Amino acid sequence: MTDVTLPAVVDSTLPVLDELTSSLGVPRDILASTDEIQTAWENLPGVMRKIPPALRTESLARMCVAVASGLFDSAINYIWNASIIELREKVRKFGLNVVEQITGKSNFDEQALLDLKDAELLSLCLKLNLITEDGFFFLDQCRDIRNNFSAAHPTVGKIDDHEFIAFANRCAKYALGDEHSHVGVDIQAFMDAVKGSKFSNEQKQQWVQRISQTHEAQQYLLFGSLHGIYCDPSSNEEARVNALMISAEFAPHFTPKAKSDLINRHHEYIAKGDEKRHKASQQFFEKLGMLSLLGEHEMHSMISAACQRMLSVHQAFDNFYNEPPFAERLLQLSSQGEVPDTVKDEFVNTVVTCAVGNPYGVSNAAMPYYLKMIQSFSPREVEIMLNLPKKKNIVGERIKRHQRCKSQFKEIVRMVDPSSVPTSVATTYNYWIQQR
């Protein structure tokens, strides 16, 4: 913003006002008083500095002339008109076709925009996030003042210098002062692109940029649509990949509202008994690292199922070769939040059983995944692990009967940080640490 310095015209203007009202035989107080004009003129540069130079149009020049002449009722009309023109321009930049998609208004074209009453325009700008809720509140008050105290209509009273400056300041701050205007995303074009061929990196970045520049309300709508495409059984794999690719760019910064909308969509699938979409939705949350948002019940279900598959593969033929992808998935699931208490025993038992291996060895390719999970064990999970050798289960029997398994368990215990060992199993921990 460039600085604004208004010329010293008041001293030459005020005598003219006195002579003009006197020659017409009207009271001088039909215009603002000398003190009011001086105060308003002195504060006007501060208001003008909030307005980008490109928006300091002829309406604002006329406003300044009106202020110097003591015509505050005309001055507020000029700056209000400038504000309405700029708000319409913000809507145009957002995209009239996109406004039609979001609002559901058919044939929302240039003429429809021009036909909007001021109150309707403010409401539309609020819906599109082109103005904030604070901005809507203050601009709506300005609209009421303009309708009752400006030269646009017969007035019900007069406003003084402080009221005028407050009016002008609100228009400058909430309608004229924001140089950044959101640009809406053409929803239909975006959906067509997502359902087309797999995005190139340049294409992905272009859509990410466009979504970043639109307002939150439309972002929520787009994220929900991407979730729907991913979960739709009829979507091709390229569309699912595109949907996940775009969502992953925004997932780390999802607002609570965005997360809530997605969770509600997920629960709708459960309520409708749509098993295919429900499973796909679980996978969507998992891929975005947000599985913990679905709650303990679903976390329990998914981790338990992964543990059962893991143990099944571990005990099957050629397990050393087949274990890695199942171990990696179990790590991914358990890394997305605390493992629910209801499935901790099964989880720990599975991980330790596979990490200890059988008399012939372990799956070397899967061991890094097992070790990461063990190193992340909570104190409760450490307690469960240290009690496993005492139980009549697969890993307990292997530790008792096979020296290789016993030695492997000892090495696993040594990976546990002493600070994670509960007092109740400290003796057992020390026993294994001291084993040679």
Task: Walk me through the structure.
The chain has 436 residues and is mostly helical. It folds into 3 domains: 10-176; 187-294; 310-433. It is 69% helix and 0% strand. The chain is built from 23 helices and no strands. The chain has helices at 10-24, 34-48, 58-68, 72-94, 96-103, 110-115, 118-127, 133-149, 161-176, 187-194, 201-213, 216-231, 237-250, 256-272, 275-287, 296-314, 319-334, 341-356, 367-375, 379-387, 394-401, 403-414, 426-433. α12 (216-231) packs antiparallel against α13. The longest helix is centred in the N-terminal third of the chain and has 23 residues, at 72-94.
Quick summary:
The chain is mainly alpha-helical and about 425 residues long. About 70% of the residues lie in helices and about 0% in strands.
Helix proportion of residues, in percent?
Answer: 55-70%
What portion of residues belong to β-strands? under 5%
Q: How many domains, in number, for the residues? A: 3
- Counting DSSP E segments of at least 2 residues, the number of strands comes to 0
* Overall SS class: mainly alpha
Order of helices and strands: HHHHHHHHHHHHHHHHHHHHHHH
Q: State the end-to-end CA separation.
A: 75 Å
The helix count comes to: 23
Round the Cα radius of gyration to an integer and report it: 34 Å
Overall pLDDT metric: 88
Report the principal-axis shape: elongated
Largest sheet: none
- Unreliable segments (pLDDT under 50, ≥5 consecutive)? none
